[in-house]
Amino acid sequence: MSLFTLLLVLWGAVTLAFLAVMAWKSLIGMREEDVVILDPAESHLVAEQQHVIATMLRLTRWAKTFGFASLGLMIVVGGIYAYKGYLAFNGQTP
């Protein structure tokens, strides 16, 4: 397996993880409210809402990490692909 193929597989795996985290984040985010007005009888909902917010913040960090890793790998794979094309255009073997 060549380095180019390995990088493509790695990019695909990282991008798939990014999409999975984003889907999970959107499912969790459906329970998040912008404004919560509660009376004293509903005080147990405060802890639930704080848990949802903490989960969203944790997922945001993972989404940024996987997103930037996917972008970086895409740039590297694109650079290698362009370099191979440049060499082939000039009659050299890549």
Key attributes of the depicted protein:
0% strand; 94 residues; 2 helices
Q: What do these coordinates show?
A:
The longest helix is centred in the last third of the chain and has 46 residues, at about 45-90. The chain has one domain. The chain has about 90 residues and is mainly α. The chain has helices at about 5-30, 45-90. The protein contains 2 helices and no strands. It is rod-shaped. Helix content is about 80%, strand content about 0%.
What's the SSE blueprint?
Elements: H1 3-29, H2 44-89
Helix pairs in contact: 1-2
β-sheet strand percentage: under 5%
Main beta-sheet strand count, sense and barrel state: none
Strand pairing plus helix content: what structural class?
mainly alpha
Number of strands: 0
Kindly state the mean pLDDT as a whole number? 88
Q: Give the low-pLDDT segments.
A: none
Helix and strand run: HH
Number of domains: 1
Query: Whole-Å distance between the termini?
Result: 15 Å
Helix content: over 70%
Please, what is the oligomeric state?
A: single chain
Question: What's a quick, concise take on this entry?
Answer:
By secondary structure, the protein is an all-alpha fold. The protein has helices at residues 3-29, 44-89.
